[in-house]
Amino acid sequence: MASIQQQFRATKKQKIVDAAAGKKPLSSGDKAGDKLQVEQLAQQIADVQEILYAERKHKILIVLQGMDTSGKDGTVRGVFGKIDPLGVSSIAFKAPTAEEKAHDYLWRVHQQVPGLGEFTIFNRSHYEDVLITRVHDWIDNKECARRYEHIRAFEKMLAETGTVILKFFLHISSDAQKQRLEERIAYSDKHWKFDPNDLEERKYWSDYQRQYAKAIAETDAAHAPWYVIPADSKTHRNLAIASILLDTLQKLKPAFPPANPAFAKLKVV
């Protein structure tokens, strides 16, 4: 039976646009049971993260990419919501500022990578610089190829200096995105989530699918793997990501630092 990583791991030959976004490969058939399992996995991740934070041997970088409404924010809440805030940060990369534009495109990204013992979640990431920029022809093929070289080298450097990298493509279907956008328009308490520009970007759906497929093929590596996560179901999206993350963390065999024998002689008065 394939491992959880193998089940969702992208391959260079995989055609992302043909993947079945709506599949629920981890479904137990019991929605309430699946949600409970996500909560249990999230708690286990939080428990392991506490040890990693104390151990200070590893740096964990999680990259979340996906079309609008694919559930990046929901993943942060559902999978990482039980972690002690001291040990985790979530970075939502927006359009670059004037200062950021004055530097190379990876400058703002490198400043946000995790330190020892830390979890950092990229809610969108440096991949925007080869996705939206290419869809709208803000850069040409030659510049895009250069950027892929930069990204591969950047991630290799991070991995070689102790960063564990996990990259997740939240693969939502066009129909599911349509439904979620309609809900954001229909319900006033969801208006804060809605950006009219999302409707414009939806017109480029096929272009984005092609660019995501290319980005994954160009940058998937053993030290920086891509996982394609069906994201039409929020519960099963979180279940898949939490399962992969916990399995990866447990393989690091984290342990609290050894006891200090000198402390046995101390007395609090």
From TrEMBL:
NCBIfam families assigned to the protein according to its UniProt record, in alphabetical order: PPK2_rel_1
Protein name in UniProt: PPK2 family polyphosphate:nucleotide phosphotransferase
Domain Polyphosphate kinase-2-related: 31-253
SUPFAM superfamilies: P-loop containing nucleoside triphosphate hydrolases
Gene3D superfamilies: P-loop containing nucleotide triphosphate hydrolases
Thylakoid as UniProt keyword: no
A Gene Ontology molecular function term of the record: polyphosphate kinase activity
